[in-house]
Design brief:
Radius of gyration: 19 Å
Function: Involved in DNA repair and RecF pathway recombination.
Number of domains: 2
Number of strands: 5
Strand order of the largest sheet: 1-2-3-5-4
Largest sheet: 5 strands, mixed, barrel
CATH topology of the largest domain: de novo design (two linked rop proteins)
Pfam families: RecO_C (PF02565), RecO_N (PF11967)
Distance between the termini: 56 Å
Organism: Butyrivibrio fibrisolvens
Oligomer: single chain
Number of helices: 7
Family: Belongs to the RecO family.
Keywords: DNA damage, DNA recombination, DNA repair
Helix content: 40-55%
């Protein structure tokens, strides 16, 4: 029997799917970071059925518009209009490791019923940069992690008196203060990038108070890149 939904309880949000998990035989529970409602969870009924209306449209990395039915205790996804599927993250293992890590870190910072516009934009731009061969993926990762701290209000600034180079100081000033669209407009030497990675690791260990499941795999990938 076809489900019907009250028009008055419909809600349209813009966001990125950051994770999903199977429920029952045919459904998913989907987590989305949205501009309008922050981080939300919603049922995607029938999304695991081949050829279903939502099949393929509620996978991690899907970015677009989601029409929801807002029930008393949960959301149900009714329709989707996906603008970007970020296909490279489904085909390349290295890209997948980096992309999955950014999704997990965004999940850590995002909260329900909050304005996550800046975090969503940062995530979208960072995922886009990861798909470009011109960008060092390690630098993209560092930029995302440090700017996420800025958005979260925890960014401690440049660690003075630790012997880091002026190039890294300028890079961190850029990451902290530039417009989001201008974030990915610089390069670093190998030595400066190693310094920035070290600072980012230090800040992550201090400010992120839980184990990130995707980090171990990503760390292995990055060691192979060095």
């Amino acid at each position: 029997m076809k489900e019907t939904f009250d028009q008055d309880n419909r809600l349209t949000v813009n966001g990125i799917v950051i994770k999903h998990r199977p429920v029952g035989e045919y459904d998913f529970t989907v987590t989305i970071i949205t501009m309008e409602r922050g981080k939300i969870s919603a049922f995607a009924r029938g999304a695991r059925k081949p050829g279903g209306k939502l099949s393929g449209n509620v996978e991690p990395f899907c970015y677009g518009t989601f029409t929801l039915y807002e029930g008393k205790s949960s959301y149900n996804i009714i329709e989707t209009d996906i603008i970007n599927y970020f296909e490279p993250f489904r085909r390349n293992l290295e890209d997948t490791c980096y992309g999955t890590y950014l999704l997990e870190l965004a999940d850590y910072y995002a909260t329900e019923n909050s304005d996550e516009t800046e975090l969503l934009k940062l995530l979208y731009l960072s995922l886009t940069a990861l798909t470009k061969d011109a960008f060092d993926k390690r630098l993209v990762r560092c930029i995302f992690e440090l700017r996420a701290l800025v958005i979260d209000g925890q960014y401690p600034g440049f660690p003075e008196n630790r012997g880091y180079s002026d190039a890294v100081k300028l890079a961190m000033q850029h990451i902290n203060g530039s417009d989001l669209k201008s974030l990915f407009t610089f390069r670093l030497s190998d030595q400066a990038l190693k310094e920035l990675i070290d600072i980012t690791r230090m800040y992550r260990e201090h400010f992120v108070d839980r184990q990130l499941k995707s980090l171990e795999i990503l760390s292995t990938v990055e060691r192979e890149l060095i």
